Amino acid sequence: xxxxxxxxxxxxxxxxxxxxxxxxxxxxxxxxxxxxxxxxxxxxxxxxxxxxxxxxxxxxxxxxxxxxxxxxxxxxxxxxxxxxxxxxxxxxxxxxxxxxxxxxxxxxxxxxxxxxxxxxxxxxxxxxxxxxxxxxxxxxxxxxxxxxxxxxxxxxxxxxxxxxxxxxxxxxxxxxxxxxxxxxxxxxxx
Length: 190
Ligand SMILES: Cc1cc2nc3c(=O)[nH]c(=O)nc-3n(C[C@H](O)[C@H](O)[C@H](O)COP(=O)(O)O)c2cc1C
Known about the structure:
Low-confidence stretches: none
Shape: globular
Largest sheet: 6 strands, antiparallel, barrel
Structural class: alpha+beta
Strand content: 25-35%
Strand order of the largest sheet: 1-2-3-8-7-4
Order of helices and strands: EEEHEHEEEEHHH
Bound molecules: flavin mononucleotide
Number of strands: 8
Number of helices: 5
Mean pLDDT: 96
Radius of gyration: 17 Å
C-alpha cells in the first residue's frame, strides 16, 4: 500500500524543504521512492534523515504543486529539521539503506519515533479529489488533454458535494494551474 504524505527534509542552507511523496511500509522500514532529479533525494542522501508528515490539509499538496511552499513548520524532536505544523502525526526517520536506481532509487528508512498531534476526522471525498488532481498536475506534460479533462470532470463531483473551504482553495489552485499550462502551450505554439 502507498500512503500519500508530505516529506520534510533539510536543505543545504539548513532550511526546511517540503514535498509531497508516496511512502510504503515494508519489513519494518518506511520506503521512499523519489524520481531523479529530486531535491528531496539529494537532501536525504546528504543528511541521512527525513520526516514523514501525515496531514488532512490538502492545500499543502496542492500548494507544493503550484509554487506555494511556505507552510509553517515546528522543530522536530530528534532531528535538525522542521515537521509540518498542520500534521496530524509525523514520524522522524533515519536513512538506513539506499537501493540505487538511475530513475527511481529506493530509500529504506527506520523510524526513530512517531508523534500524534490531532485525531483523524474521517474520510472526505473532496480531499481525495484534490490529491488525485495534484497528481494529474504533476503529470501535465505527460498526459493527453482529454484524459485530464475527463478526470477533472469526475473529481469535480466530489468537490461540489463534499468540499470545505480548504479543499475549495486547493482545487482552485490546481485548476488554475491546468489553465495556465494550457495558455502557455497556446502561446508557445503561436
Ligand atoms: C500525492 C503526490 C505524491 C507524489 N509522490 C511522489 C513520489 O513518490 N516520488 C516522487 O519523486 N515524486 C512524487 N510526487 C511529485 C513530487 O512531489 C514533485 O515532483 C516534487 O517536485 C518533488 O521534487 P523535489 O524533491 O525536487 O522537491 C508526488 C506528488 C503528489 C501530488
